[in-house]
Design brief:
It is a single chain. This protein has helices at residues 8-23, 28-35, 83-99, 120-134, 153-167, 188-207, 223-234, 257-267, 281-284, 303-308, 324-333, 342-345, 348-362, 368-393, 397-416, and strands spanning 39-48, 54-63, 71-78, 105-112, 143-147, 215-219, 238-243, 248-250, 291-294, 313-315, 338-340. It is an alpha/beta fold. The longest helix has 26 residues, at 368-393. Bound molecules: nicotinamide-adenine-dinucleotide.
Length: 420
C-alpha cells in the first residue's frame, strides 16, 4: 500500500512489524491491514499569542485500529513531531495494549510545538484548541487521550474540560492522566516509571543480581525517567548516571535521586544541579552498569551505541529507544544483555490509564494500594508470557512481546471481518 507515513521512526515500526509478520508467517494479504492506521487526523490549531500575534500549530492524531475497543494513547507536544512519528507511536500502542490484554486499539497524537517556548496562557490556549479540533473524532468509546512527552496532568485537565464544555456535562473518561480530584486515579503519575523499575527487578532476579548490589543509569528525567529512578533507588539500586536534554551526570559512587528529582521539579531540568560529575551524554550510555533505562526519546540506542554498551539489562522506559539495527548488534554480541522491550517495560502507564478509564466510567474510585497491586499483577502476567514465549520459540524478548500483541490483534480482526 502507498501511504503518507514516512520518516525514520515510522520506518522502524514498519521494519519491526515485518520481522514479526515473517516470524508469525502472516499472509501478505493481512499485513497492510494490520500495519497501516485506520484513521489519521491532521488539524491546524490557531491561537492568540501573548504578544497579540496569531500563530498556527499543526496537530495530529492517529487511530491505528478500533478492533478491540477505542483507540488509546498519549499526546506529545514536541517541536519535531510529524505524522510518521505519531503513526509509529500509535502502532506500538496497539501491540502494547494487546500484550497487556486491554480492550483498546493504539492511538497517539501530538502538536508540533516546543511547549517550553510557550507561556502558561499560550499552553492552555493551544491545549484547548487542539482538543476542540479533535472533538468530532474522539470520544470515551472512540479514542481516549493521555499524556506523553511535553504534556502533563494540567494539559489533560484542559483537554477534559474543553471536551466537557462542548458536551454540557463532565466527561472525565475522555482522557486519562488527569489530576486526582478531577477524575484522575491515584498511582497514574508514577505508574510508567514504577513499572519500569518493577520489571527491571524481575530481570535482575532472573540474572541472580540483588538490587542492593546493582547500579543503574537512567536516560531522560521527565515523568518516566524520574519515577523509574525513584523506584530503582527505593529498593537499594545505586543510580550512577542520569541525563536529560540539558545535561548528563555520572558518578560511580552514586547520585542522590531525591535531590535530583527536587532540582528537576524546581527548575524544569537537570542542568545546574551540580558543576561536578558531568559527562558527555552519549558517553554516559557506554559506562558499565547493571540496568540501563532509556526513558527519553526514540532511537537513542543505535547500532554504534549498542556495540559499546556495558550493561546487563536494558529497561526500555521510552517508546522505540532501540533501533532494529541495534537489536541485530545485540543479538550478534550474544553476551546475554537482557532487553525488556518497550511495549512490555513501559506498559504500566497504559495499564493504569485503563484503570483510570474504568473508574471514571463507573464513578467508583480505588485506593492507591488497589491500583498498584493490580498493576503489578498485570505486569507479572505479561512478563511471564513474554519470557515463556521467548524461551519456547528461541527468539528475543522483543520478538516474543510483539508476536503476542500482533497475534491478538490479528485474531480479533479475523473474527470480526474487514470493518474495524
Ligand atoms: P517527559 O516530557 O516528561 O520527559 C522527557 C525527558 O526526556 C525530559 O527529561 C527531557 O529532557 C529528556 N530528553 C529529551 N531528549 C533527550 C535526549 N536526547 N537525551 C536525554 N534526555 C532527553 O516525557 P515522558 O512522559 O517521561 O516520556 C518519556 C518517554 O517515555 C517517551 O518515549 C514516551 O513516549 C514514553 N512513555 C511515556 C509514558 C507516560 O506515562 N508518560 C508511558 C509510556 C511511554
Amino acid at each position: 500500500m502507498k501511504s503518507l507515513y514516512a520518516g525514520p521512526v515510522f520506518e522502524m515500526a514498519r521494519n519491526q512489524f515485518h520481522v514479526i509478520a515473517d516470524h508469525l508467517s502472516i499472509p501478505e494479504d493481512d499485513r497492510d491491514r494490520l500495519l497501516y492506521p485506520k484513521r489519521a487526523i491532521v488539524v491546524s490549531c490557531p491561537i492568540h499569542m501573548d504578544d497579540g500575534r496569531t500563530e498556527v500549530f499543526a496537530g495530529y492524531r492517529v487511530q491505528h485500529h478500533l478492533t478491540l475497543g477505542p483507540a488509546k494513547g498519549g499526546t506529545r507536544f514536541a517541536a519535531n513531531v510529524d505524522i510518521g512519528e505519531i503513526a509509529a507511536l500509535a502502532i506500538w500502542m496497539s501491540w502494547k495494549c494487546a500484550l497487556a490484554d486491554l480492550p483498546y486499539g493504539g492511538g497517539k497524537g501530538g502538536v508540533a510545538v516546543d511547549p517550553r517556548a510557550l507561556s502558561l496562557n499560550e499552553l492552555e490556549n493551544l491545549s484547548r484548541r487542539y482538543m476542540q479540533e479533535m472533538i468530532p473524532f474522539v470520544g470515551p468509546r472512540v479514542d481516549v487521550m493521555a499524556p506523553d512527552m511535553g504534556t502533563n496532568e494540567q494539559v489533560m485537565a484542559w483537554f477534559m474540560d474543553t471536551y466537557s464544555m462542548y458536551q454540557g456535562i463532565t466527561v472525565p473518561e475522555i482522557v486519562t492522566g488527569k489530576p486526582v480530584g478531577t477524575g484522575g486515579t491515584l498511582g497514574r503519575r508514577e505508574a510508567t516509571g514504577h513499572g519500569v523499575a518493577f520489571l527491571a527487578f524481575r530481570a535482575l532476579d532472573a540474572l541472580g543480581v540483588a538490587p542492593t548490589e546493582a547500579t543503574a543509569i537512567v536516560q531522560g528525567f521527565g515523568n518516566v525517567g524520574s519515577h523509574a529512578a525513584l523506584g530503582l533507588a527505593a529498593r537499594g539500586v545505586k543510580l550512577i548516571g542520569v541525563s536529560d536534554a540539558s545535561i548528563a551526570y555520572y558518578d560511580p559512587k552514586g547520585l542522590d535521586v531525591r535531590a535530583l528529582v527536587a532540582h528537576a521539579v524546581k527548575t524544569g531540568d537537570l542542568a545546574g544541579y551540580s558543576g561536578q560529575a558531568t559527562i558527555d551524554a552519549r558517553t554516559l550510555l557506554d559506562q558499565p552498569c547493571d540496568v540501563l533505562a532509556p526513558c527519553a526519546i526514540e532511537r537513542t540506542i543505535d547500532a554504534d551505541a549498542a556495540r559499546r554498551l556495558r550493561c546487563r539489562v536494558i529497561a526500555e522506559g521510552a517508546n522505540g529507544p532501540t533501533t532494529p539495527e541495534a537489536d541485530r548488534v545485540l543479538a550478534e554480541r550474544n553476551d546475554g544483555i537482557f532487553v525488556i522491550p518497550d511495549i512490555l517495560c513501559n506498559s504500566g502507564g497504559v495499564i493504569v490509564s485503563y484503570f483510570e478509564w474504568v473508574q471514571d466510567l463507573q464513578q467508583y474510585f480505588w485506593s492507591r494500594d488497589e491500583v498498584m497491586d493490580r498493576l503489578e499483577r498485570a505486569l507479572d502476567r505479561s512478563w511471564a508470557m513474554v519470557v515463556a514465549r521467548a524461551k519456547r520459540d528461541g527468539v528475543s524478548n522483543r520478538t516474543a512481546a510483539m508476536a503476542i500483541g500482533v497475534e491478538r490483534v490479528q485474531k480479533a480482526k479475523h473474527a470480526r471481518g474487514l470493518f474495524p
